[in-house]
Amino acid sequence: MEIFAHRGLNHQAPENTMTAFRLAHESGLDWIETDVDILGDGTPVILHDSTLDRTTNRTGSIYNLTAADLSKISAGVHFDGPNSEQYAQEPIPTLDDLVDFLNETGMGCNLEIKSNEAGGEMSLNLLEAVEERCFQRLKDRSPERLLVSSFNHVLLYIIHQRHPEIATACLYTKDNLWPDALSVCELVGAKTIHPQNEGLTPEIIKHLKQANLTINVWTVNDPTRTRELKDLGADGVFTDIADEMTTALR
Ligand code: G3P
Ligand code: MG
């Protein structure tokens, strides 16, 4: 069972920060999951939300920002886990920071390309930024080390056309998974599917397995549910407690 540290080891450090990724690596984990979007000036950054409100000391849309603004933003101020006081200066990483880390450590990465809420042209800008700053710079783009996912399946289709060697995964929420997921995955060239845990039944998993899809489920923080998913044929889970989940499954 593959265990993905969802947004890094985010119960030990602020989500989607270099510290959360480093802690995942130091804990012996093999895979992180993280999210990429772009600022208004085209700089690709590692951030889940399209606004700063939930995770930083600032508010407002990231689509109005430039790279120069990043030095004024802390991605650690809302963290309430261990050693929270030490994250006041924790920056939002750029995609370059992430790729440097992956090249240095060899960690596997599921890079989720956010469905850019600024619209179609920005989505294509984001895709080009990922091509330039990740695909071109990352040393190991093998399916064992890089998996690109998105709720935007059109982006995955374009990636498959341009870079057929890159492994892709279609993200689905519980509300839109069935019945078209199999045909969409086939159409866009994705051999992996990332369904939401909620609403994922044994029957659905059976259908996905019959289509030879690799199944990684988000977000599962209960070891009992992880064991159940494993027994049903799921291949991996995204979890906020990746270190503890790994221990629990031993
Ligand atoms: O990629 C799995 C999961 O991260 C998808 O949802 O909202 O946490 O990015 P979200
Ligand atoms: Mg994500």
From TrEMBL:
Residues 1-249 form the GP-PDE domain. InterPro entries: GP_PDE_dom (IPR030395), PLC-like_Pdiesterase_TIM-brl (IPR017946). Pfam families: GDPD. Gene3D superfamilies: Phosphatidylinositol (PI) phosphodiesterase (3.20.20.190). One of its GO terms (molecular function) is phosphoric diester hydrolase activity. GO terms for biological process: lipid metabolic process. PANTHER family: GLYCEROPHOSPHODIESTER PHOSPHODIESTERASE (PTHR46211:SF14), GLYCEROPHOSPHORYL DIESTER PHOSPHODIESTERASE (PTHR46211). It comes from Mobiluncus porci. This is Glycerophosphoryl diester phosphodiesterase.
